[in-house]
Structure formats: structure tokens, C-alpha cells
Amino acid sequence: MNNLINLNFWFDNTPSSFTPSFETGFLYLFALAVVSGLAARINAKTKPDKYQKILRLRLGNGLITFGILGLIWYFFSFEEIQVFGMRFWFLLLMVGMIIWSYNLYRYFTKTVPALIRQEQSKAEANQYLPRTNRR
After folding, report:
1. For burial by CB atoms within 10 Å, which of 22, 61, 111, 130 has the most?
2. Is 102 exposed, middle or buried (CB count within 10 Å of its CB: 0-12, 13-18, 19+)?
3. Strongest mean pLDDT among 32-36, 51-55, 113-117, 130-134
4. For residue range 10-39, what is the model confidence (pLDDT) as tens digits?
């Protein structure tokens, strides 16, 4: 546990290779993220609600990006390429994923309900406005 606090652990130019269980775990994690992202994007096309569609598209884009960047990092660390295989890239990827998840959560709990209320109030106001005759 002390290694996680030590900066030399994260910025080591020659990190030790993974154990076989970590290798397969990371590979499955990143591959699952890509497949889940593709499934979310495909599923977005079937949603009639525009906010559900936006949620699925954003979720799919984020998961695909996370998965591809993770697979690239996995390749570099598997091949023991020094600079690009360093552990801090994984840490940076995880921090980015947490920030992205928070922003997605905040958008769909704060912004979307406000947009829905705005659309409803606009629809209520429009019902009293005069319309032109369409002949």
C-alpha cells in the first residue's frame, strides 16, 4: 500500500511487467468497455426520447474512448515501452474516467430536468398564442 503513495512507483521508467491475472483482467476490462460503448451507441438509435438518446450516445462515446485509450496503454505496457507504458498513464486514465462520469451524472440530474421544465413551460405558453390560418 505504501507504493501507491510513493511517486517513484507511478513515474518509474521501467515498471515491472504485469502478473498474468492482471494482464487478462485489464484486457477484459478495456475490451468490455469498447463493446459496451458500441452497444450503448447502437441502442441509442432505438430510443424515441431525445434525452435518453443523448444519454446513450454520451455514455457510448465515453466508454469507447476509455476502452481504446486503455487498450493502447495496455499494449505499451505489455510491450514494455518505457514512457508510454508508465503507470501514471493508467492513473490519468482513471481520473479522467471519474471526472467524465461525474459530468455525465451532473448533466442528467441537473441540466436535463431544467430543460424538460423549460420545454413544458414553453409548450404551455404556446397553446395560448394565436396561430395563422392554414388554408
Report:
1. 61
2. exposed
3. 32-36
4. 677 776 667 788 788 888 999 999 999 999
Q: How confident is the model at residue 4 (pLDDT cuts 50, 70, 90)?
A: low
3-class SS letters over 69-133: HHHHHHHHHHCCCCCCCCHHHHHHHHHHHHHHHHHHHHHHHHHHHHHHHHHHHHHHHHCCCCCCC
Mean pLDDT of 1-15: 68
**Whether 27 contacts 73, CB under 8 Å:** no
Ordered DSSP codes for 38-65: HHHHHHHTT--SHHHHHHHHHHHHHHHH
